[in-house]
Design brief:
By secondary structure, the chain is mainly alpha-helical. The chain has a domain at 19-48. Helices cover 96% and strands 0% of the residues. The protein is built from 1 helix and no strands. The longest helix has 52 residues, at 2-53. The radius of gyration is 23 Å and the shape is rod-shaped.
Length: 54
């Protein structure tokens, strides 16, 4: 019975680590998409101002 409890404890520990990794990856993806969209908007504005001056 003690081995089962130790196995279950280890399993939950790895499950918690997996959950933390998934959350961090989700945050990183969200931030990356947000930064890329902001950069695309900035490049589009610069392109529009360059075309207007030309």
């Amino acid at each position: 019975m003690e081995n089962l409890i130790l196995f279950f404890n280890s399993f939950l520990s790895y499950l918690l680590v997996l959950a933390v990794i998934v959350v961090l990856a989700g945050i990183a993806i969200f931030v990356g998409i947000k930064m890329r969209k902001r950069k695309n908007e900035q490049l589009e504005k610069e392109s529009n101002t360059a075309n207007a001056k030309a």
